[in-house]
Write a structure and sequence with these properties.
It contains 4 helices and no strands. The protein is an all-alpha fold and about 80 residues long. It has one domain. It starts with a helix and ends with a helix.
């Protein structure tokens, strides 16, 4: 699938930017762990493609800011389902 780790990091970055995907969604799409995606994006991509890294960093920051909202909505949904049973 990937010839080198550098190619993998670029593919992760391009996927994330084109879809505004989360690390979890990117990992699922490529069949790798979230740790692998995050490590490639934060440690390798800045040296390989600074411009792409800048776009990825922006998405990572947006996702980080929204994380607590998503978690709250998921918990709310969980309890609404339990209440309706």
């Amino acid at each position: 699938m990937f010839r080198t780790d550098k190619e993998r990091a670029v593919q992760f970055g391009e996927y994330m930017v084109s879809r505004k995907a989360t690390v979890r969604a990117t990992a699922a799409a490529f069949g790798v762990s979230k740790s692998t995606v995050h490590k490639d994006l934060t440690e390798q991509l800045p040296d390989i493609s600074p411009r792409l890294y800048k776009s990825v960093r922006k998405i990572l920051e947006e996702n980080k800011e929204q994380r607590h909202i998503r978690g709250g909505l998921a918990t709310k949904h969980k309890y609404e389902l339990a209440k309706n049973k």
